[in-house]
Amino acid sequence: MMIERPDCLNTLAAWKDKDVIKVITGVRRCGKSTLMDMFKQRLRRQGVPADHIIHLNLELLENEHLLEYRALHDEVLHRCADEDKHYVLIDEIQNVPDFQKAVDSLYVRPNIDLYITGSNANLLSGTLATLLSGRYVEIPMLPLSFAEYARAADQSSSKRRLWSQYLHDGGFPAVGGLGGNDMLIHDYLDGILNTILVKDVASRANANVDLLRTLATYMYDNIGNLSTSAKIANALTSLGTKTSQPTVAAYLDALCAAFVLYPVSRYDIRGKRILKQEKKYYAVDMGLRRVLCSNDVRDTGRILENVVYLELLRREGQVYVGSGSSGEIDFVTNGVEGRKYWQVCESAERSETLERELSSFRSVRDSYPKTLITLDDVREANHEGIRQVYALDWLSE
What we know:
Elements: H1 6-14, E1 21-25, H2 32-45, E2 53-57, H3 69-79, E3 86-91, H4 99-107, E4 112-118, H5 127-131, E5 136-140, H6 146-152, H7 159-169, H8 182-205, H9 209-221, H10 229-238, H11 245-257, E6 261-268, E7 273-283, H12 286-292, H13 300-316, E8 319-324, E9 327-335, E10 338-345, H14 351-362, E11 370-374, E12 381-383, E13 386-390, H15 391-395
Parallel strand pairs: 1-4, 1-5, 2-3, 3-4, 6-8, 10-11, 11-13
Antiparallel strand pairs: 6-7, 8-9, 9-10, 12-13
Helix pairs in contact: 3-4, 7-12, 8-12, 10-11
């Protein structure tokens, strides 16, 4: 099932023929390979000959012989038969040890426009970042947003119904082709999770898979809570899983590198600096959270906060937890339009709740935009310059 994702496709297309390597990153099965297929179709419609589009998926068994950087490099050059522009699309490049050597050599050739995908954030760290400094652009991908999910779903359903389904099913694109069958959806999502934990994390970090899953479950059950690796280690030990702070820290890094978790640092609004102590962690997908947490969908306020965080990541890029003199701002973003402040609340219908949320904004003494997002199905309101919006409308923009 191919779901149109015009925002991602247009971003990728905007970098066509630009002198940088296009690096598409994101969790497994979020749609990176499908995006490549869509881009390939667009290239064909623009008149690019089929033999000048080289698409290699390194997850496929028939490409196993290319999991060596020289073999991959030579295969691409062999298929670049002339000096005309060739568009080289390589999926899951991290499967090739020392892949950066092949990437660097291909990139410098004037007849190659290079696009690669990867399911590990460390793709852009270490050797590759040093070798290709200033010569690549990252295009991050997530599972479907609520707006993308809604566009692909039954249009006769209400927004509330679609929201309930979205929290239940999650945003992995292939889930939409499983006909709403709970057993199939559960098994599919559990399969994704196991593949990530075994193939993307445990095998690379020499980690214990059972402890990884226990840690992921704990973190998904505590989304949006300020945490440190020491506190998490103590909590797991008290729950019967003995572990240590260094192990938790290493495993958290590995889960974040595989895009299972997204860490969010605190930002000192007054001091204008990032704080190094506690962080919040958010889940990449609500369907995965339901599988890990045994169908538990309680605490819908924090679930809303998680979905809003992911949406801000798509729209704004940089997202932090705001730390002010008189409390916390849920999110501070620094996108292309400048700084913005965001509060998320399941319901602000009660006057005391509304006042509490607004007071957090009022303690911030600047004029940057401030938005309160709630699940109250009311018309957009303005509270002395503070915008209040209905979450499902805002997520559908």
